[in-house]
Amino acid sequence: MPEARVIPLRPDDEQPPSPPAAEPGWDEQLAGGLEFLRRRLTGEYDTDEFGFDPDLTDHVLLPGLRPWFHRWFRVETQGLENVPDVGGALVVANHSGTVPVDALMATVALHDEHPAARRLRLLGADLVFQVPFIGSLARKLGVTLACNEDAERLLSSGELVGVFPEGFKGVGKPFHERYTLQRFGRGGFVSAALRTGTPIVPCAIVGAEEIYPMIGNARIAARLLGLPYFPITPTFPLLGPLGAVPLPSKWFIAFGEPIETASYGPAAADDPMVVFNLTDQVRETIQHSLYRLLLQRRSVFS
Amino acid sequence: MPPAVVLVTGVSRWLGGALAAELASDPAIGRVIGVDTVPPRPEVLRRLGRVEFVRADIRSPLIGKVIESASVDTVVHMNISATPAGAGGRVSMKELNVIGTMQLLAACQRSPAVRRLVLKSTSAVYGASSRDPAVFTETMQARRVPGGGFAKDSLDIEGYVRAFARRRPDVGVAVLRFTNLIGPRIDSLLSGFLRMPVVPTALGYDARLQLLHEDDAVAVLTRAATGDFVGTANAGASGTVLLSQAIRRLGRVPLPLPEPAMGSLGRTTRWARMVDWSPEQMRFLNFGRVIDTRVLREEFGYVPRYSTAEALADYGRSLPPVVRPELVEEVAASARTVLTSVAGGAHTVQRVLDTVAGGRRRAAPSVPGLRAVHDA
């Protein structure tokens, strides 16, 4: 029967697919902004015990990051189905780029592109919280101190936690060492996952290495300012504030298959052998996906 | 078994007086003895009822005689001063806090009748720094040990109380680490700070605050004095607010100042006897502090009636706001009206332009989707 064709039938009780929500008009946007300002002035918004301010994050911080995400770095995400829709999970990623922009882009990726719009609760170094403005803004974005107490508290309350175990060694490494993972700390993130029985999602970020290619480190300036490093890039400090504009590299963020930890039991967190093995496994997975993504990428900027 | 004779130190302050009055209203308790160096203010005195007041300095051996002769079996120690001005300078504050506690504990150790000791401590013992975990549980210690002032005194006092518990294992010792207390009647450190019309804050920092309502504080202390909880418990309400948020909710005007200016402002206000903040309390304003209250709710068995936000709102009712929320509401409403009329006009113009452009861009009528037919 050449004329036979398959006609998809829609059952009566199913809602017809709704048209995509129209972009709010400029007047609605202004009214929303007005309402936001009123809330901010009267303090009628909620914050949690970590200092996370969802109202500010959704209306100011994330909208501010989106143009960078879509236009500047043209971030492509892969493997979002590996991030669970509900419940705690630990996203472990490589760290690079002199300034931790990769952490912010991962936050946008998981909130905007994940079907469950998950909020990534990042763990930051204590230096972040020492610096005025940055520290308080980071807390409002949902960042908290990288320590086992905070990580376990967030994981056991079902939050998605993001961690960069390389720390300053990763974010402040010279340009010629790009895409080689540094040592993964002391494996504290693995013991936090083991103790809470939450899966570890390895995450590889490609593109962040090229935003500020660090060709030198002014150690004396770093020591004077109390920073772990003071970057010298082809444009900074040569061009002054203009040098602070990141290069528009093309980014990929890939989430790998989750590594489950519940079967080891919480007692395994005190077994150094299990912790080391899992740390190595996560590290290897991220390194392999970095190589795979680099092969896929045609050039740094496209 | 309810206690027969309770001794409350620091009874002339609001919280001590309220606790003594609460205990005195319980007919199962035989006697309630209040001790303080100064007589209670008339409004506190009126509530005290059958509380017996002893004017004594806990630094003097007189306190031992009181405990012995009245055969006190429960001691609630809350005569710990948080501000130097209240105690007449930092030196005398430290003496009152630390030496006073040592004298009191020495007297308790000598008296065989004592079988319960409640210490009103503070969560300031956890310090406040950028390296703090977000939430402190009872087993954690300060990342940066407080170097002086109230927090250091409280740490020392807790140490002496622990030593006392080891020497007298038959005495049940309960240590309660309170967050900042707030409410319409209590005169606490934070309530004085937030009462100022313009509240100075540290520029670039925003502290997380956890509060406890004054009524909940009295209830926790009452339960600690009459119950059988032994150990250390954090006492705070559920939820947190940011300092900036608290200032706005109370209708105050925040004044962010750079950190060095905060230090000299602190010295000036202390000198002027307005607000009395030590450097370590200034640090608290930078970072704040949150404590875990699971032990309070599950083991101690008390769930605070007010959350942090509700306690703050209750305090706000006693405080005429500088920036009235209705004013903000009115401004927002009028701005909204202007916006709606402007938008209405713009939409009309848009429609007119569309009509002029003609029906060329009219959307195609939607094709009805295929539908399965039900059997009759």
Describe the structure.
The complex is a heterodimer of chains A (302) and B (376). Helix content of chain A is 38%, strand content 11%. Chain A has 302 residues and is α/β, with parallel strands linked by helices. Chain A has a 7-stranded mixed sheet with strand order 1-9-6-2-5-3-4, sandwiched between helices. Chain A is globular and about 60 Å long. Chain B is built from 14 helices and 15 strands. In chain B, the strands form 5 sheets. In chain B, strands 3-2-1-4-5-7-12 form a 7-stranded parallel sheet, sandwiched between helices. The radius of gyration of chain B is 28 Å and the shape is elongated. About 2% of the residues of chain B have low confidence. Chains A and B meet through helix 1, helix 4, helix 5, strand 4 and helix 6 of A and strand 13, helix 9 and helix 14 of B.
SSE sequence of chain A, one letter per element: HHEEHEHHEHEHHEEHEEH
Gross morphology of chain B is: elongated
> Which strand order do you get reading across the main beta sheet of chain B?
3-2-1-4-5-7-12
Structural class of chain A: alpha/beta
Uncertain ranges of chain A: none
The quaternary structure here is heterodimer
Distinct helical segment count of chain A: 10
Helix fraction bin of chain B: 40-55%
Beta-strand percent range of chain B = 15-25%
Distance between the termini of chain B: 76 Å
Mean of residue pLDDT of chain A? Answer: 91
The interface involving the most residues is between: A-B, 44 and 46 residues
Give me the strand/helix succession of chain B. Answer: EHEHEHEHHEEHEEHEEEHEEHEHHEHHH
